[in-house]
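Progress report, Aim 2. The chain analyzed during this reporting quarter is listed below.
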Amino acid sequence: MKTMKGPGIFLAQFLRDQEPFHALFPISEWAEGLGYKGIQIPSWDSRAVDLEKAAASKDYCDEIKGKLSSLNIEVIELGAYIQGQVLVMHPAYETLFSGFFPSGLGKNERIRWATRQLKDAIKASVNFGTRNVSVLSGGLAWHLVYPWPQRPEGIIDEAFSELARLWKPILDDAADHGITIGYELHPGSDLFDGATYEMFLDKVDEHPAACITYDPSHFVLQQLDYLDFIKRYGDRIRAFHVKDAEFIPDGRTGVYGGYQPWMKRAGRFRSPGDGQVDFKRVFSLLTEQGYEGWAILEWECCIKSPRQGAEEAVPFIANHIIQATEVAFDDFAGGESNRELNRRILGLE
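Predicted structure tokens for the chain:
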């Protein structure tokens, strides 16, 4: 077993145009002041990193790492969620997502842009010395999640074939560079649970770079067993978001949320410790599975402020990290063993 690292923090939800949240080093200094030891960097936000420059220049990445090291902060990994979602996108979502990619791009140009961004994130990860890039898969079939009217035969298979076609060159590139792609299984993307992840793995021939960024909050909202998920797919988990959620259905709303704002939904995200995720079991199971990556706060709470959420998450994460044992608790009662002794104990000799 391994001991995971932490506490870490994903910067995306904290970046603002006001100091100290307006640039990488001031926000990292703020995070370190709270007790964080590592940062997950949103690669699409120029306030945090120049992705193209990071892909092209190890010196640029080394300079960032050096400055962060002086603040006692590590770079955990790059997140490329936006670029992944933009890579594979049903036309119905193009207007809603238009702010996430350069204006004026047609479909093929958008795909090329997203592919280049994701490959730049891989190159930048090599330059930073990190090992995983967390993404959303994007997708074509989310609007078909509830089968009414009946889905035409073969349409889901066709969607996943296209998803695999667009991701396969990126996965190959990641594997060539010793990097994994951590898909955060997320509603709104075609990879949102274990079944869809398995369908994708089948399409990409069980690609070794097709891994998982684990976030139990999305599974609470789906009413999926997030603990059994770790047992099933733990060997593929490469990153871990510490984000809580609660699901409290009533006679008005359930899993689908009734188009209500987050405050009025049956399922909603909460700060760590304020929701229903059994983090003691989550940390235990991840440790049993040999997870040695980071425990990373992702703050998304509809009630608590980001500052309070960030402050409270430091001791919460630190207190849940398990220092994995290197000895068995009953070693004191043991002794040397050999086949002759074993057979004598069994009454065979």
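The first helix runs from residue 24 to 34. Residues 85 and 138 are 4 Å apart (CA to CA). These observations will guide the mutagenesis work planned for the next reporting period.
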